[in-house]
Specification:
The chain has 410 residues and is an alpha/beta fold. The protein has three domains: 39 residues, no CATH class; 91 residues, no CATH class; 189 residues, Alpha-Beta Horseshoe (Leucine-rich repeat, LRR (right-handed beta-alpha superhelix)). 45% of the residues lie in helices and 12% in strands. The termini are far apart.
Length: 410
């Protein structure tokens, strides 16, 4: 946003801008009045992003040192550094800017600007260095959404190779045998997101790629019905889902419409990630029917957040698997509150290796008696502290006509 004096400093007349047809009348718009001063802004943010890229590129070509431009950098070094800076942005506010910047690096686009920029010191091989830098960009700890912008930048410099490779992959009959690079995974995630057809299942284990490549596929959850985001410890040196990845999953649960009906996050989740995930689970747009959180190493606090979120939006969930989290009695106590909710429609509950005690069984029994109409399958296997006498009251409900319970595995 800017004021009339800002326009005047650039040699622009506010009066003329308000009456001229064409570019000016499209660019300037009276937005609001703050402290009795008229505030102007661009009609669309992309105009501002483009001008910012033009200015940065101008400073680079003229060797003008600024905060973002270092006078002795080559073009490929300059673009690589700006790309790395954009990847660190938590909200993607530099994504469009850095795409414009890569587009401006082409001599054909520089000529379209009428020589205002001056041609760069491009020499044979420079553009290929730019392309190689993009394809080899390290995105460890970077949001998968930010990584997709690398693919867009490749298209800006007219490199279609990754797009073509992913198209061939999608048309292949033996996809599991084709190894995908990290940048190909970003492109695939984008193409799956933009597809008019909703993907039936996204299972990361089924893709032959690296750990980083698997993580770059996560944005595709926004356009699929079943998402299996878990990792085989033997083949991938990875066992934890970070906050940025949980944020992507959460956004998929909150999207309009949300296609996800099954979510398997059987991998370690830390408290901040679970908190982000809960924002999606409690969203009115969430239609999740199956939630698997095996071996997530959930803390007591995470368990409280999780079940509170489910309790606030319980009507769709049919299967909940919390096995191998070993939350003990405290977790079951919170879980019982969810089961007692009048809107809870849960049919299958799995608590394998949960370190249950006799007290846990009492709480489960009380919860089922207060809301007996839905739960059909209860899995309590591998809880070594449990005795048959503790489980028997629950098993007796299977034979009662007042309950829907069909099986108790112990």
């Amino acid at each position: 946003m800017f004021y009339s004096e800002d326009l005047e400093k650039c040699g622009l007349s506010v009066t003329d801008a308000s009456v001229y047809s064409g570019v000016c009348t499209e660019i300037f718009r009276r937005e609001s009045v703050i402290f009795h001063k008229t505030v102007y802004c661009f009609v669309h943010l992309s105009v501002q992003e483009f001008l910012a890229a033009v200015y940065s590129f101008h400073c680079h070509t003229k060797r003008k040192r600024t905060e973002d431009v270092q006078s002795r950098e080559s073009l490929d070094e300059f673009l690589k550094r700006m790309m790395e800076k954009s990847l660190k942005s938590p909200n993607g506010h530099l994504d469009l800017f850095v795409r414009f910047l890569h587009g401006l690096s082409l001599e054909s686009n520089q000529r379209l600007l009428g020589g205002q920029q001056g041609l760069t010191d491009n020499h044979p091989g420079t553009l290929q260095k730019v392309i190689n830098n993009l394809k080899e960009m390290n995105t460890g700890g970077v949001s998968p959404d930010r990584s997709i912008n690398i693919f867009h930048c490749l298209l800006e410099v007219k490199d279609q190779s990754v797009h073509q490779e992913v198209q061939e992959f999608l048309q292949s009959e033996n996809r599991s045998k084709k190894e995908l690079s990290a940048i190909q995974c970003s492109a695939l995630a984008y193409m799956l997101q933009m597809s008019e057809e909703v993907l039936e299942e996204l299972d990361l284990i089924k893709y032959n790629t690296t750990t980083q490549g698997s993580l770059r596929l996560i944005p595709a959850v926004r356009n699929c019905r079943k998402a299996v985001i878990r990792f085989e410890y033997g083949s991938l040196s990875f066992s934890e889902l970070s906050e940025v990845q949980c944020a992507v999953v959460s956004s998929a649960l909150q999207s309009s419409p949300s296609h996800l009906i099954l979510l398997d996050l059987s991998t370690t989740l830390k408290d901040p990630g679970v908190k982000l995930l809960c924002a999606g689970l409690q969203s009115p747009k969430c239609r999740l029917e199956v939630l698997r959180l095996e071996r997530c190493d959930l803390s007591e606090l995470s368990c409280d957040w999780l079940l509170s979120a489910l309790k606030s939006n319980p009507s769709h969930l049919r299967l909940l698997d919390l096995s191998f989290n070993q939350l003990q009695d405290s977790g079951v106590k919170v879980l019982s509150g969810f089961l007692q909710s009048p809107d809870c429609k849960l049919e299958t509950l799995r608590l394998k290796n949960f370190r249950l005690s006799e007290l846990s069984c009492d709480w489960l029994l009380s919860a089922l008696k207060s809301n007996p109409s839905h739960l059909r399958h209860l899995d309590l296997r591998w809880n070594q502290q449990l005795k048959e006498s503790s489980v028997k009251p629950l098993m007796d409900l299977v034979h009662s006509r007042d309950y829907q319970l069909q099986s108790v595995r112990y």
